[in-house]
Amino acid sequence: MVVKRLFSPLLKLALALAVIFSFDLVRSDQEPVLAVDQDIHSITVDTVLQEDGSAKITEYWDITTHEGTEIYKPLVLTDAQELSDYQVSMDGQPFSPIKNWDVDASFNAKAYQFGRNENSELNWGISDYGRHTYQVSYRISNFVMQTATNQMIYWRFISDNLADSPENIRMTIASEKEDFNLEYNRVWGFGFRGQVHIEDGKVVAESKESLPSSGSGILLVRIPQGTYPTQWTSDKAFDDYVKEAFEGSDYNWEDYDSNAAVEDITSMPGEGMPKLIKWGLVGLGGLGVVGILAGEFQYIKRKRALKKWYPSIKQRSQELDGQYYRDLPADNIYSDYFILDQLAIDDLDSNYLTGTILYLVKEGGLKLGGETGLFKDNHYFMVNSAYQAPDLDPIKDWWRIFNEVADDKGQFSEKDFKKYCQSRTDRLKGVSISYRSYSKNYLLGGDFIQSQTYAKAKEDQDQRYLADSQVTYPFTDKGHQLRDNWVKFYNYLKDFSLLNERGAQEVALWDRLLIYAAVLGIAAEVAKEFANLYPDFEKQSVYSGTGDINFWQYYYIANVMNRSYTQSIAPEMTSAMSSGGGGFSSFGGGGGAFGGGGGGGAR
């Protein structure tokens, strides 16, 4: 192949450079010479402010290592701050402190030990290869800064340029003095894509996807002046720090209102909705040429494994070209949401709303009424109050919503639904969460997915293991077969010549096929082909009605409703978020944060 011929000399050059620079010890002030094989599954940082203005911080590093001697975290304190009560444990086993930490010491010398490297890092021995949870706790004095106008926390809790991309990060800030609330506090998040908000009296921030190498975990919290005693002061106003933090961020300085009332600061509720599979580059910054090359090779290796074992529906459809699954791949569309989500189907949540509407129409819960006017259609849904929704959480959730939208006559239009979406984003996001919860429980119970990937020695790590280690819920063999059944079913629906195998007497089955086609995003083209194969399909289908009502009216209104639904659950940086009301975090910005530089992880 041309690509292979081109890549070969580049690979040779890269290896040559690796040899050259390995003797030159190319490194930054805090980065290791070589990247080591590791997987950072998650980092959680819990902070509790004390009444004296200090902070007790506990970190949990869920990490798999296969080489290296230690794990480290950059931590640089100001002159006003001191570190105390520093402790480390692995899976509950306490480590012993070493006064003078030697970065170049052996694996055995560092085992079950911890210390500090030149007061700029927290260091501890890997101690045992494989997957472990390391608990690191410490106390920082004068953690709260007193600015000229307010007090604040502006801290880089998780550094950028980690040696591997964490699949998930989570940060919390609580206080023993008083709860956090929007009446007195404001909060922003930088360096990660996710959410930050105040709930149950504490600040909570969490990513919705893996952290890229350039990402970090930075929180900015406004605190009323004089709340905590502190020796850490600044002549700058709090708003000066906000403006600096906003540079390069998704927050809008023009929307920032430092005097916004509580009622104006309304967080966008709900949870982030991550994909099953998210991965980022291995940390490259500051590693030098050798680290970059090692990181790139590992990145390419992991990417290829992921693409092979967890392809998109378009890729897998091509790989299974000519193979078909003629039966319905599942008893209902909701059980396999996780499978379809992994296949990277566009607008999956919107597809599920369309599928749900078609299902409720087919089962007698909804019916379209109204008529087509000369200049404007006047269609509306009619809710059948006698209908009993099945015991499936996603359907029950939608059924409750449609009943709430409907008026006293049991009718609602797409405009009524739009108004509901604008005022009840929490309910709409709750439906999306119920998709995931229902599907996860079903697939775990049926042994289609597993809750974790168990650590293997490096020599036993095959390509499937590398792929599974990047997936929140790896597929079992049964799961891969179920995924392929869906793809073959997709091929069957797309190969219109095969649809003619179904006779006119199976229109009822075609109606059901449209529900499954809807979640796959191909309902329109399948319905069109049904009509071509059997011109009376639209008249005999359950989606037909009086006058001009047929499948296309249902499909059109479902699309209009989908736009309202998608907008209600989509991330959007509002003025309330820019003013510190919580909501979505910003990947960019966060300049001037305190707490340390880049790097961290195993080395």
From TrEMBL:
Q: Which UniProt keywords apply?
A: Signal
- This protein's source sits in the domain of life called Bacteria
Position of the signal peptide = 1-28
Origin species: Aerococcus urinae
Q: Which residues form the DUF2207 domain?
A: 40-178
Residue limits of the Predicted membrane protein YciQ-like C-terminal domain?
A: 475-530
Q: What protein am I looking at?
A: DUF2207 domain-containing protein
